[in-house]
Amino acid sequence: MSAPVTSPEPAPIALPKTSESAELLKIRHSMSHVMAMAVQKLFPAARVTIGPWTENGFYYDFDNPDPFTEADLKAIKKEMGKIIGRRLPLERIAVTREEAEAKIRAQNEPYKLEILEGLQEPITLYTLGDQWWDLCAGPHVANTSELNPKAFELESVAGAYWRGDETKAQLQRIYGTAWETPEQLAEYQRRKEEALRRDHRRLGKDLDLFSIEDEAGAGLVFWHPRGARMRLLIEDFWRQTHFADGYELLYTPHVADISLWKTSGHLDFYAESMFGPMQVDEREYQLRPMNCPFHVLTYASTLRSYRELPIRWAELGTVYRYERPGVMHGLMRVRGFTQDDAHVFCLPEQIGDEILRVLNLTETILSTFDFKTYEINLSTRPEKSIGDDAVWDLATKGLIDALDRKGWSYKIDEGGGAFYGPKIDLKIEDAIGRMWQCSTIQLDFNLPERFDLNYVAADGSRQRPIMIHRAILGSLERFFGIMTENYAGDFPFWLAPEQVRLLPVTDEVVPYAEDLLSRLKAAGIRASLDRSGDRLGKLIRTGEQQKIPVLGVIGAKEAEDNAVSLRSRRDGDLGSVAIPTLLEAGQEANQTRAARLNLPAA
Description:
Elements: H1 22-42, E1 47-48, E2 58-63, H2 70-85, E3 90-95, H3 97-107, H4 110-117, E4 123-128, E5 132-135, E6 152-161, E7 170-178, H5 182-197, H6 200-206, E8 210-212, E9 221-223, H7 225-244, E10 248-249, E11 255-257, H8 258-264, H9 266-269, E12 278-280, E13 283-287, H10 292-300, E14 304-305, E15 311-320, E16 336-346, H11 351-368, E17 374-379, H12 389-406, E18 411-413, E19 423-429, E20 435-444, H13 446-450, E21 455-456, E22 462-463, E23 466-475, H14 476-487, E24 500-504, H15 510-522, E25 527-529, H16 536-545, E26 550-554, H17 556-561, E27 563-568, E28 572-578, H18 579-592
Helix pairs in contact: 1-2, 3-4, 6-14, 11-12
């Protein structure tokens, strides 16, 4: 008997967006019903819950006494093919609540009864032939003959909780994908394989960058030396660019008295995503889910003049948020992460210039990591919001003005702003066409009001500053995961945790290799020496598997010539290179944050 394949529900592999027609969505919705019919034909004790279409396919959740196995999936797929071949009609029927309840009770489907309780009339169901039905609003194809039996696949089984609530029954979710043609299915599978090849969780383990240790708790990241080295490089670059752009850095606490979170409003609006408080000296302290209130308190520590504004403060601040077990995913969704937060306190008339400044800094930072294509949304005032119309109009105009001056195209998301102010959200496109939410710029009238922030205006009156929240990388952990997948672990030279690995061919040249290793390290080049004594072919294969940017082969001739034979992952065989040339090229690549060594022509 095959081993059960049920497991806690995994976060899906991110795939490039595809244009999906209304017909394709109907195909997927219909295919989910076909799958449910097949499951209940083969497993009469299985009870169905919900089965929607998804971005790349469909799923259905089942309550079945036994775990579904790989062999079961094959049998279900075969039965689905038979159902499709019978050319069964899918028909929509309107029923009364009483009629629906009677049909459900006759079939002993308890989950459908709970679903029925939440439905508004008219209540509709879809039949599949005269043998199977489910509560559904549609739409579906007219007949199973419109489904291509060679253009679908059952992909996996995962655990899922009823209504997404871990206190309720655990179900089994069968995932499938469906397309109009076999060619579309093949292309989807190709893209999925490429996404799997780039999966940062696998690469993080293979390249020894980070781990998440169960003993410490879910969603907490352990940075290994190689990953920590890369993180330090990212942080150093981030700090340098912020200092150059007029920011000062802050360091603030990880916890605060719970009254701070009451004042900020987080306990009212965000409590379910916060960890519980802790008792210290008869006071309640709270792990911070956000950095903003700490920057607000720093601003409020002294009376400010309009002459001081704008004030730009940045912090790599670690925050802690409760994420439910089913949504955590490698570095993308964790419970402890470091935001590249910054807050600008400015005058209303300074908004446009400050936003443009943030957009320029965003481009500088993201393009350094080879993210140069963006999708931008400008979100305006929602129905429920705070602040005067005049301030909202001025703030929104400032965002639009900055985007227009930057020359970036954007979409308006009417009413999509936060209750405390309008915002700009930026998605980045990676090497295989996927879009990732990354940077955000938000204007805030709420916290200055809640904390009674002021500045002394030119006329001596007390006025409220405008507060700009912004994050460019978002969180270091999530950005590191996105970046790893973008590069497929093949990092540019300046960012690689190990830039050069020396491969001595014989024991006789090891002293020369050790001296060269010292010179490389003294020049700030991250280098290592493979002392395993393996044959050269294996040394090279190991280095390539570990994605080392440059391998330096050292034999008797190289030692005699004070040189090293270089092999580059990006440029192939570079030939024999004099040591001073290598040192100079490595230092230049690090200073300019280059993807490869720039060696002079031979």
